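Q&A log
Question type: sequence-to-structure
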Amino acid sequence: LPDNAGRNNSTSSEIGKVIKSGIEDLRIFLGVKSGIVALGESTTANVFRTLTPVVMNVPGTNIVTTDLDHPAVYDATRVLAERLNKEWRCASLSPDKGIVEPESILECIDSDTIILALIHSSNNLGTRNDVKTIIKEARKIKPDLFVLVDGAQNSSHSLIDVEDLGCDIYTVSSYKTYSKIGASAFYLSERASKLSHDKLIGHDNSCWELGTREQAGYAAWSEVIKYLCWLGSCFSDSENRRELIIKAMEKIRLYELAIISQMLYGNADTPGMLSIKNVEVMGETKNLKIKDPVFLFSIKGKSSAEVVSAFERENIRVN
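Response status: OK
Response body:
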């Protein structure tokens, strides 16, 4: 639409409605009851955007992340630690499971930890950290600990409830959640949203978006939630949108479990990855409850570039 929000004309008014609806729909999708939701260009940008005010304003001497994390979090925490003279601590993953055990993270946290930043589901291994337990146990060490959860990979595979998790920041990627590039979203708890942050003079603390966002991004999120509600309505008579989203994500999860099982173990007609000669699958292959349909594998004697090219010749896309 050829205009911006906030102007005194009918087109601008319509844009305002699109933006408001998109934010309201995202709040339902994320299970937000308090705090704010905003959009940014990417999860990486949003992590830097939300981490910086925490590290700059919250007392403490160290930042904790994990070596399972995407560079969006891994790099952002390290860059900010170096820039602001904080200690950077990195909890190690369990290679056989492909997750970060709670104990590994808890060893890194103390009363001087500013923030714990960790991934919900690995974009490489498809394994899911027990984020709720980690947050609960970490706050036994430091009750007012700030926590950022990178949900970019997780958001299309399982239900998100930021209130239940108890995190202060949760990021989701638009293009990984049935949508488009350039409209990734983030949630901020009430206390996180009030931290001093970059914004134009005159705006209150609820303003976390810098400049004019692309209004199509908000509309796209509304379409995502509309799709999930439609899917949920195929299995429920409820008219409550949150309940429909819960039902949709339950069914998506069941469908994905079937895909994961067939990919790993095969069926009567096709062998699974675990039984194919010279193929090695990394991470968890038994406990499918912590597994998303993302697989990291290697082929003996072949480089990653050779494998990708071979798949490309068969019109199969891999990263």
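Response note: Residues 7 and 13 are 7 Å apart (CA to CA).
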